């Protein structure tokens, strides 16, 4: 009896969590795709972050992409640099497969948030050698994510999954 | 300086090769797909998906969807009766944390349902048959976490059935058009990520 109750409590908690998330999601989906007959993909980042197509923003986006690679090449010790390259190649292979599976509109390969993942890998490497605290890494990553969202280059969930995949690759290497 | 140059060139060459190959392949298909939709005057968003392209659409019959639900419930029931309290608690702790994460991710970017008719509101769908909870697959998370716990607790007699259930579930989810291929893959990665880092609720 006790065994049955011990097992039932977490099961009930789990079902409540699952249903709550689903019902909110259903409400958002219905409002977006049925009520409004929207042509766009609903994305919370597009609601929260204002769009910008300015040169400065594009420059910032490119800087976030290129600077970590340059910093890694110049500053990482040789062993870490090769590990970094290895992880980047793994990431690219994984993203290649994934971006070919489901392609979000418009024409760009929107699922392919490789650069953000590569950036997170860089921050994890920098954190592992003590060059960046977890807080600094999080703030910089958030700034990069906001830049991507502002430029409308990708969807919010892809950025979150990009971070998860980067963490996953990093954990595999460890 | 020359060392840095050589290191930089290796990195750049590797990245460029991967980028050019993958980007071209993906973009060619995407442009063909979305451009043809634009020319045909289609307005509703539709997502290109490789699984939907190659796996037969079984939405005409509801059995594929019911099978997915049945497999999910069955795996939890098997776990409930066959797992020890410790193993079942671990499974639930893992699933609670994964589903809290999913609670967030399904609402970040909401992809459209595969069939436009599914977009119509119904109370039944609100409670039991959501068509918008795509990224990532909860059904897949059920069975993947069960498999991971089976492996962790070395329940060897359950490994093969769990692997088969995982494969069948993945195919059926795509065949029933309940999920896009990426949802299935992301579900696997997220579950592995949570397991690797030991992120789970305290029970």
What does this structure look like?
The model of chain A has no long low-confidence stretch (mean pLDDT 80). Chain A has helices at residues 2-35, 44-48, 55-75, 78-101, 114-128, 134-150, 156-173, and strands at 42-43, 102-103. Chain A is mainly α and 174 residues long. The longest helix of chain A is centred in the first third of the chain and has 34 residues, at 2-35. Chain A is 77% helix and 2% strand. In chain A, helix 3 runs antiparallel to helix 6. Chain B is mostly helical and 203 residues long. Chain B has 8 helices and 2 strands. Chain B has helices spanning 2-39, 50-54, 63-82, 85-108, 123-127, 138-152, 156-175, 181-197, and strands spanning 48-49, 109-110. At the A-B interface, helix 1, strand 1, helix 3, helix 4 and strand 2 of A face helix 1, strand 1, helix 4, strand 2 and helix 5 of B. Strand 2 (102-103) of chain A pairs antiparallel with strand 1 of chain B, so a sheet runs across the interface.
Mean pLDDT across all residues of chain A, rounded?
A: 80
Described by strand count, sense and barrel closure, the largest sheet of chain B is: none
Number of E-state strands of chain A: 2
Taking Cα atoms only, what radius of gyration of chain A do you get, to the nearest Å? Answer: 20 Å
Strand proportion of chain B:
under 5%
SSE series of chain A:
HEHHHEHHH
List unreliable stretches of 5+ residues of chain B. none
Considering DSSP H and I runs of 4 or more, what fraction of the residues of chain A is helical?
A: over 70%
Query: Biggest chain pair contact, residues each?
Result: A-B, 75 and 80 residues
The largest sheet of chain A is: none
Query: Beta-strand percentage of chain A?
Result: under 5%
